[in-house]
Amino acid sequence: GAVVSQHPSWVICKSGTSVKIECRSLDFQATTMFWYRQFPKQSLMLMATSNEGSKATYEQGVEKDKFLINHASLTLSTLTVTSAHPEDSSFYICSARENPGELFFGEGSRLTVL
Amino acid sequence: SQKIEQNSEALNIQEGKTATLTCNYTNYSPAYLQWYRQDPGRGPVFLLLIRENEKEKRKERLKVTFDTTLKQSLFHITASQPADSATYLCAPTGGGFKTIFGAGTRLFVKA
């Protein structure tokens, strides 16, 4: 099946710094990628839909200036958490679909902000 | 607003029995519905997809039903094994192919 790679798998940073997370579709081209956030014992919450070559579409309540999404190519989307604070600590997961149907997920990136 | 409810936070069953997980949705008309498995600290893994015009779908020991009138999907694991212990997520997908996830049901299969 299709593979989505996410990097880094975990990152620890100081409050106020920015962190970039990469999401790559390894064996297919993804016009659209999705970014989710998951807090402990909670479900995945869709943050934004990343569209190749255009601006991302953010869900209500998600600050677009804080969570910068770039989808520069058909195989790469990045999420940058700017000026991170401890409350941004979470599990961030990207996903993509090859065809209308199932989503393929990356392994997730665990962010801890000190 | 759109709402997805999965029957319980946790389900405990004995090995060999059939596990049945429930997903109900409101204010939503998904074109299809998916089920995923998630292990702790990992991303979800796709299991099955069922379209709105399908009543039932099977894959090995897994079976999914989809009732658009009741706005409900049932997910069954037959002959359950301890390795089936995980969190199972229901995910209806609607317009724009945006996928929303339920809170999940944690399944524990005892040997």
List the helices and strands and how they pair.
The complex is a heterodimer of chains A (114) and B (111).
Chain A: E1 4-7, E2 10-13, E3 19-25, E4 32-38, E5 45-51, E6 57-58, E7 67-73, E8 76-81, E9 90-96, E10 104-105, E11 109-113
Parallel strand pairs in A: 2-11
Antiparallel strand pairs in A: 1-3, 3-8, 4-5, 4-9, 5-6, 7-8, 9-10, 9-11
Chain B: E1 3-6, E2 10-14, E3 19-26, E4 32-38, E5 45-51, E6 56-59, E7 62-67, E8 72-77, E9 86-93, E10 105-110
Parallel strand pairs in B: 2-10
Antiparallel strand pairs in B: 1-3, 3-8, 4-5, 4-9, 6-7, 7-8, 9-10
Task: Give a nutshell description of this structure.
The complex is a heterodimer of chains A (114) and B (111). Chain A is mainly beta and 114 residues long.
Describe the structure.
The complex is a heterodimer of chains A (114) and B (111). With 114 residues, chain A is mainly β. Helices cover 0% and strands 51% of the residues of chain A. Chain A has strands spanning 4-7, 10-13, 19-25, 32-38, 45-51, 57-58, 67-73, 76-81, 90-96, 104-105, 109-113. In chain A, the strands form two sheets. In chain A, strands 2, 4, 5, 6, 9, 10 and 11 form a seven-stranded mixed β-sheet that branches. In chain A, strands 1-3-8-7 form a four-stranded antiparallel β-sheet, with no helix packed on it. The radius of gyration of chain A is 13 Å and the shape is globular. Chain A starts with a strand and ends with a strand. Chain B is an all-beta fold and 111 residues long. In chain B, the strands form two sheets. Chain B has a five-stranded antiparallel β-sheet with strand order 1-3-8-7-6, with no helix packed on it. In chain B, strands 2-10-9-4-5 form a five-stranded mixed β-sheet, with no helix packed on it. In chain B, strand 7 and strand 8 form a beta hairpin. The interface between A and B is medium-sized, with 25 and 21 residues.
